[in-house]
Amino acid sequence: MDIKIKIAIADDHPLVISGLHHILNNCPDMEITGSYANGDELLAGIAKVQPDVLLLDIQMPGQTGDELAEIICEKYPDVRMLALTNQDNVFYIKNMLRKGVDGYILKTTGEEILLEAIRTVNKGEQYIETGLQEKIIQDTLQAKKDLSADPVLSRREKEILRYIAADLTSQEIADKLFVSKRTIDNHRMSLLLKLGVKNVAGLVKKGIQLGLIE
Amino acid sequence: MDIKIKIAIADDHPLVISGLHHILNNCPDMEITGSYANGDELLAGIAKVQPDVLLLDIQMPGQTGDELAEIICEKYPDVRMLALTNQDNVFYIKNMLRKGVDGYILKTTGEEILLEAIRTVNKGEQYIETGLQEKIIQDTLQAKKDLSADPVLSRREKEILRYIAADLTSQEIADKLFVSKRTIDNHRMSLLLKLGVKNVAGLVKKGIQLGLIE
DNA sequence: ATAAAAATAGGTATTTATACCTATTTTTTG
DNA sequence: CAAAAAATAGGTATAAATACCTATTTTTAT
């Protein structure tokens, strides 16, 4: 194994960068081709030499990590990206993955995991830290949340809510169910009241939260 | 260990029921207290003797598994429920968990997993089959889906879409951004066009799909 | 530097949703 | 069986969204 994995780092914390230098320089199969403290530096640097793997933080001055990921994924599809950040929020993870990042690990992660993650994404595979996978599952199916709090919708109301979320107007729903438009409008009002929202946008979001839609 | 885990079964396939009988009768720490082929039988049976763990299928004549789960979770909070079904769709999994089920395994699952699942939910813990956990993760972060297909919204449009999904009216958004309501209305139109939907409900759903919201 | 795209704003009209009522019939439930 | 809840429908307004235009200024990209 002669050919080393070329690694670039984008992070605005000097300490993180020097820490990574220390770790990676001791790895015979890796070399650092550049480290950048903000988005502009990163884009300029990457234009000159493309790494195999880019370690990318989310919070940075100027462009944020997810914007950068999007640009790089578009312009340099051969560069694998590994999010390396403090954010353990599921929303951030989803977001980065969607923007084209290949892996996601936390800065609190141990050295071995870091190296494993780099090698994995370099092979073209996805790497999500185990703890975060757990978190995603828990977040996705936040089981049995307080039943008391969940609003009691009647079967008809649920049905209508599904139609509303399916883009139908009251008139269209009425035609489909062979009832008056006024009936549907009244159901709409009950739904707004019961779900404590003020308009269709709120209804759709609640419907999704309640698992009635999608 | 004298006290056996009392198990009830709700499934409309006689074969499944007899298979389960065969497996569970050979387990010294378990006993079957009843097996039911539909919702009414189940509710009647459970009213007489409450099992520790209920194995519950989703498709059944009359009430569906998720409706039954909801009822049982409400009336008999001490009964642990384990979904045992053919549905490996993430939507179903989420839905059952939300309705109060404690675990979810497939009928294609091996005997050892079945027993482990029963023992786990009996202890009050959650059990999701490993393969399904994987599936949930993949489903949640369906990474790098064809970028070509994803609509190019401008930064402003994304911002406005977020506000729309946050229940704000055009007027409210206009006030917040110090622009005319007409401007926001025009952005709304562009969003409808670009996202290929016809109203707010569609906008909200797309926004969630695109990861802009929630 | 120039072209393209984005953000801005207005005119005008129609459709849809929201709000607050009353009221009857049907279904559920104790 | 009686009471409660759900589903039905109408009256009347107003607010908001949708549709289809034109047009100017500002920003981005080649």
Folded structure, characterized:
Two copies of one chain form a homodimer. With 214 residues, chain A is of the alpha/beta class. Chain A has two domains: 5-140, 3-Layer(aba) Sandwich (Rossmann fold); 147-209, Winged helix-like DNA-binding domain superfamily/Winged helix DNA-binding domain (Arc Repressor Mutant, subunit A, Orthogonal Bundle). Helices cover 51% and strands 14% of the residues of chain A. Chain A contains ten helices and six strands. The first copy, chain A, has helices spanning 14-25, 39-48, 65-75, 90-98, 111-122, 130-140, 155-165, 170-177, 181-195, 200-209; strands at residues 5-10, 30-36, 53-56, 80-85, 103-106, 127-128. A six-stranded parallel β-sheet of chain A has the order 2-1-3-4-5-6, sandwiched between helices. In chain A, helix 7 (155-165) crosses helix 10 (200-209). The longest helix of chain A is centred in the last third of the chain and has 15 residues, at 181-195. The radius of gyration of chain A is 24 Å and the shape is elongated. The relative contact order of chain A is 0.09. The model of chain A has no long low-confidence stretch (mean pLDDT 91). The first copy, chain A, binds a DNA duplex (30 and 30 nucleotides) through residues 154-157, 169-171, 179-183, 185-190, 192, 198-200.
Summarize the structure.
The structure is a homodimer of 214-residue chains. Chain A is built from 10 helices and 6 strands, in the order βαβαβαβαβαβααααα.
> How would you classify the helix and strand content of chain A by structural class?
alpha/beta
Number of helices of chain A: 10
- What is the highest CATH level, the class of the largest domain in chain A? Alpha Beta
Helix and strand succession of chain A? EHEHEHEHEHEHHHHH
Termini of chain A, distance in Å? 48 Å
Number of strands of chain A: 6
Q: Give the CATH H-level superfamily of the largest domain in chain A.
A: Response regulator
Main sheet of chain A? 6 strands, parallel
Spans of chain A of at least 5 consecutive residues whose pLDDT stays below 50 are: none
Oligomeric state of the chains present here: homodimer
Shape label of chain A: elongated
Proportion of helical residues of chain A: 40-55%
Largest interface: A-B, 42 and 41 residues
Mean pLDDT of chain A: 91
> Proportion of β residues of chain A?
5-15%
Please identify, by name, the CATH architecture of the largest domain in chain A: 3-Layer(aba) Sandwich
What is the CATH topology classification name of the largest domain in chain A? Answer: Rossmann fold
- Largest sheet strand order of chain A: 2-1-3-4-5-6
Domain module count of chain A = 2
